[in-house]
Amino acid sequence: VQFVESGGGLVQPGGSLNLSCVASGFTFSAHSMRWFRQAPGKEREFVAQVTRNSVFQRYAEDVKGRFTISRDNVKNTVYLQMNSLKPEDTAVYYCHADDLDYWGQGTQVTVSS
């Protein structure tokens, strides 16, 4: 099982980034997918979830209306479109498959002027 996250970087407040996570080693379409993030000195926290067939999405309260999670079951990829970014969104972002205990290296997002 492998997750390769990408798309992070340095962005100014109010800017946008689109994260990608390519998954391999398991049946991607059989699992709900989530994004988590971990800021320095803090616990890893839930950001967003998309169900297997993309019918349902769920978001943490502080990203609702700004972030959008989506997936492509042909490309085995989950995305996180992040708009109106704030300094408090600064963290390492990870994707995760429900019911699998594997994590990738994550991608760093830094929101700063």
Question: Could you walk me through the main structural features you see in this protein, from its secondary elements to its overall organization?
Answer:
The protein is mainly β and 113 residues long. Helices cover 0% and strands 49% of the residues. The protein has strands at 2-6, 9-11, 17-24, 33-38, 45-50, 57-59, 67-72, 77-82, 91-97, 107-111. Strands 2-10-9-4-5-6 form a 6-stranded mixed β-sheet, with no helix packed on it. It has a 4-stranded antiparallel β-sheet with strand order 1-3-8-7, with no helix packed on it. The chain is globular and about 40 Å long. The mean pLDDT is 97.
Which helices and strands occur, and which strands form pairs?
Layout: E1 2-6, E2 9-11, E3 17-24, E4 33-38, E5 45-50, E6 57-59, E7 67-72, E8 77-82, E9 91-97, E10 107-111
Mean pLDDT: 97
Helix content: under 10%
List the secondary-structure elements in sequence, H or E. EEEEEEEEEE
Strands, count = 10
Task: Pick out the low-confidence regions.
Answer: none
Please state the overall shape, judged from the principal axes of the Cα atoms. Answer: globular
Spatial separation of the terminal alpha carbons:
37 Å
